[in-house]
Structures are given as structure tokens and as C-alpha cells.
Amino acid sequence: MPATALNPASSSVLSADGLRKTYLSGVQRLQVLSDVSLEVAAGESVSIRGESGSGKSTLINLLAGLDAPDVGRLLWFGQPATPDRRAEFLGIVFQSFYLIPEMDALANVLMAARIRGGAGAAERSRARDLLGRVGLAERATHLPAQLSGGERQRVAVARALMNAPKLVLADEPTGNLDERTGDAVIELLLGLCRETGTALVLVTHNVAHAAKCAHQLTLRDGTLC
Amino acid sequence: MPWPIYLALKQLFPTGRRFPFFTLISITGVALGVMLLVISISVMGGFQHEIRKMIVDTQGEVQVRGEGLIADPAAVLAALAQVPGVAAATPFAEGVALIEHERKPAYPGIQGIDLARIEAVAPLGRFVRVGSLDDLDDDTVILSSQLAAGLGARLGSRIEVYSPLLLEKMKNDEVMLPRELTVVGLFEVGHQQLDSSLVLVTLRTMQDLYGLGPAVHGVNVRIAPGADPDAVARAVNETMLRAHRVQARSWIEANEDFLFVLQLEKNMIFFLLTFIIVVAAFSVASSLLIAVVRKTREIGLLGALGAKPRQVAACFCCQGLFIGVAGTAAGVALGFVFLHFRNDMIRIFTQLTGSEEVLARFYQFSRLPAHTAREDIVLIIVCAVVISTLAGLLPAWRAARLKPVEALRSE
User: Fold this and answer.
1) A–B: how many Cβ contacts below 8 A?
2) b/e A119-151 (16+ beta carbons within 10 angstroms → b)
3) Contact across the interface for B14 and A101, Cβ inside 8 Å
4) Contact across the interface for A102 and B15, Cβ inside 8 Å
5) Residues B136-153: pLDDT tens digits?
6) What is the mean pLDDT of residues A119-147?
7) Which residues of A fall within a CB distance of 8 Å from B6?
8) Is the Cβ pair A84, B306 closer than 8 Å?
9) Which residues of A touch B301 (CB under 8 A)?
10) Which sequence spans correspond to the domains of chain B?
11) How far is CA B85 from the centre of its chain?
């Protein structure tokens, strides 16, 4: 059960406690997040909504360990979040897909496994399986430039799930897609997370997409509510 | 395969695409530098090799000379046979002479050779293009090809030889007739100086012309395969210097200054041409830096997927390395292709510019020599690959410093 107050539990895959983030804008200090706490249990899906500039992406970056909070504590599976645990623990889906253009869809999915430690026959088989599950089995050898926006995002979803992470963080994954394609991607993401027991934190503008998650939070004035 | 290597290869040679322009330009730059180095160093090595070959094939590897004349060459030859590393030896007498054919004079060098021993030391017979060394006797002569052409002499022509001794006697109003010798052969070593001004006669003829009696000017020595010429010369000096009053010098020592200048030229060419590779490396660095900027968000993605900064750096270092390896391989291959067809290319060029004779006159060789030493190629390869890899360091450092969150946010 997500909460704005930290409530450590053995099943928590993500525990954020009192996260605060301030940026310097010229000489002005801009507090983006103030005292954000969040707990996500295994297999749980949580949506975070908020207006543009409310700090959603900043929060995702903090939760992913890509940026450090000024104050606060972040735990992944009860252990401090460190960059070397990211490949094993986290899958991330970005709004802009971020596929490597020189590699085909299969190689892009496998890249997550390569960075984690290797891409043997088992990983290759899993990558093919994931591409099949996102409906791209026939497009495995296609380059990103040969795929539509929706297909690229589905490849990104498969890549996020490649290492069987405990948690997937999705930062406005439908932001660059049309409504119909966006709906399909969200269904796919939620379905796969449900199937694999993976927790999901979904940052989105879309009310309908947010409503599909088990828990809905809103980021307002730098805090979650 | 570690992923930085895999990704480096993918970025240089993307799936399903033609050879990327950036990769092609980078590899071509390194290849051109390496090719020029291979060609230049091989040609310089060729000059060295040809000179060595010419000296060794006409004089042997060690030359023994007396303080004056060697009065008893048989004793010296017998003593030389006992020196370790000496394979064969042949006495010689040498000087200059005025020769004349159909009133055309020339002042070539003249060398008297011991027909029974010469082939074991200096395979002169190999250079006789017309006639045969076997036909040489005390009444005959073998002329260098260009000298014969200059005199208008052919096989069977009779030439008159005036030695300094003869001229001295004529100066004292003695009536002396020049020695008449019949041309029985023409030789061509491939070195312009030798091919235009050398005459071969028998040792006895030369001893007569110079009034040497049984004495000779020196002994040429062929050393055993694998033996060191300097070591053999030292051994000869240690055992024979006092007893026979002779001194041995290896061909390396005798031509020390010339060989030093050749080596210096070769080193300077290597040093200067290496800068072509350095310039190419700057181009590689520039291209990779552009790639870092162009792929900033991908670098951010790698960080987001869990890549460590040193792995990202390794990816760009590997790109420099692969460009270096590919460029070096292509450069070495192109260099060898050029060297293989060098004489055809030079012939076409000199024919177009009408400079065939100039080439022979100024460079002493009728063909462009080339000799590629294995250690030179290894040095070129190591230099090119190391310099290219170093070119990847700055982009690698830039890439490693990028923070994933900032890289992903970049436009």
C-alpha cells in the first residue's frame, strides 16, 4: 500500500523517505520536491499525476537513483539505492523511448542484459519471448527507424522487463504517442507487470491511464498526496 | 563479448547500414598515414638493403687490407681460413686505368679478381648480362654495361688499357704499348655508379698492369651464414693483425657514415610521417567528440540501464582502437599493394614526365628498391594503433563525465 509516510515492510521494493530536491535557477533556489515519501510493495502499481513542472520527472529520476536528493533516504528492497544495483533492480521506460538507433529491436532489448552482465542463449531467448509478448516477434530484426512510435515504446517496455526487475518506473510513457497507441502501451505495461509480479510506478498526465493503477497519487506543491 | 566492445562495434558498423561516413573517413585518415609510412620506410629500407647487397655481393662482408700491399696473399688466405666465421676469401687488386676504344677514352675503376675464388665470395657471374665470367682470362676484360655503351664496345671489341705504371713509364720517354684486352662480357649490378665505371680483369692482369708482382691490395671475405660481420672482423684483427700486418673491416664499419646517414634519414622520415597519423588521430578524436555530443541521450540511457562511467569510457576508447586497427590494417595492405606495383607506377610516371634517366642518374638504382623489415612494420602498427586509441581518450573522458540524468534531459 503506498503511503506518503514511510512504512517499512519486508515486501517493500521501494522506500523513499523525506526526499527533497532544490534546483538553482540563476540566483533563485527552486524547491521542486519537499518531503516526498513513498513506499511501493512488490507487484503493486502506483500512478503519479501532476501538472507540468510539478516535479514528476524529478521524482522519477530520484526514485531511479539517476539523481541524488538534497535530503532524504531511498531504499530498494530494503537496501540503499546505488547505481550498481540499478540494472538488476530497476526497469525504466522513458517518454522518448531512447532506443539505440544502430541496433535492431532484439539487440536493444538485449542491451539491458548485456549491461547487467551478459547476453547468452537464455537471455536471447527471453528477449525474443518479451518481444513476442509485446507483439513485435516479427519485428525483432528491425531498426528503431523502421518502427512506429508505438512499436518503439513497446520495445522499450520489453527492454525494461528484460532483467526481470522488481520495479518498473515509467516516466510518461505515452507522452509521444497518440491516444489509441498510448492506451495499448499502458495496457501492455500493466498486463506484463501484473503477469510477472513487477511493481510499477507510472508517471502520467492521463487520468484514464492513472486510474488503471491500483493506487493513484498526485504530486502537488512538491509533495505527494 | 563485453558490452562496451559490442556497442563500439555497433556504433562504428551499425546493423543493416552501409559503412558509415564518419567511420570511413576516420579509418581512411589512419590508413593513408600508415600507407605512406609503410611505403616510405620500405623504400628507405630498400635503399639500405640494395646498398648492403651491392657491397656484400661485390666485396664480401669483410675486407682485409695490409698496411701497404699484401705481399704474401697465400699466407693471409691460409690464416683467414682458420678464423671462426670465415666461409671463403678471395684476393683482389684495384685501381683506376685509362681505357680507350675507337679513340673514345674513359677512366673507370679497374679490379683484378681471382677467378678460382671469386664466386665463393662475390657472385659476380650473376651480374654478367652478356657473355660469361668463365671467358675471362689474362687477355680479356669484362666491362660494366653503361661504360661499354659509352665507349661503343661490344663482345669481341678490343680496348686499350693504360695503367698509371704505364703512363709513368711513358712520361720517362720509355716506349710502352698499352695492354690490349678483348671484351668477353658486360655486367650490370643495378647500381648506376658501378654500372658506368668499373672494369673487371683477372688478378694476374691487374698485377701486371700495376707491377705488383705476386702482391695484392686486399682480400675480400665471405662470412658463414648467421655470423656477425663485425665479430668476424674483430676475430680477424685479433688473430692476424700482428702476424700478417693486416687489418679487417666489416662492410658495416667501412660504410659507417653512409649507413648512419641512411638510418638517420629513415628515422627522420618515420618521425615526420608519424605526424600524418597524429593528424588523422585528431580527426578521429574530433569525430568521436561529435559522436559523444550526438549520442548524449544514448549515453544517458546507458547510465540509466546501469552502465558504469568507466564502461561508457571504454566504449569510446574501443572505437578509437577499432578505427586504429582497421585503418592500420588497411594502410599496411595498401602500402604493400603500392610497393608491389611501385616499379610499374614509377615507369608510367617517368614515361609521362620523361625522367627515366634522371631517376637512374640521381638515385643510383635502375629500379625503385624496397625492403620491408618486420620490426619496422611492427613499430608502425604499434604507433598507429596506440595513437588512434589515445585519440579516443578525450571523447571517452567526456562521455564518462556525463551524468545520466543530465544526458537524458539534453536536447
Assistant:
1) 72
2) beeebeebbbebbebbebeebbebbbeebeebb
3) yes
4) yes
5) 999 999 999 889 998 999
6) 88
7) 114
8) yes
9) 94, 98, 100
10) 3-51+258-409, 86-223
11) 25
How many angstroms separate the most distant Cα atoms in chain B?
Answer: 107
CA dihedral sign, ordered B104, B108, B114, B120: negative
Closest approach of A140 to chain B, Cα-based (Å)? 12
> Which pLDDT band holds residue B35 (cuts at 50, 70, 90)?
very high
pLDDT one-digit tens code per residue, B55-94: 788 778 899 998 888 988 898 899 888 888 899 999 999 9
Please report, as a single letter, which amino acid is at residue A162. M
- List, as one string, the DSSP characters of A144-194: GGGS-HHHHHHHHHHHHHTT--SEEEEESTTTTS-HHHHHHHHHHHHHHHH
Q: Which cell numbers hold the place of B80?
A: 683467414
Query: Quick one: how far is CA B87 from the chain centroid?
Result: 25
Q: What is the dihedral of CA B18, B22, B25, B27, to 10 degrees?
A: -80
Nearest-CB residue to B16 (from A100, A143, A159): A143
Distance of alpha carbon A91 from alpha carbon A217, whole angstroms = 20
3 state SS of A213: coil
The correct CATH number of A44-66+83-224 out of 3.40.50.300, 3.30.565.10, 3.30.70.141, 3.40.1190.10 is 3.40.50.300
Rounded to the nearest angstrom, the minimum Cα separation between A63 and chain B is 12
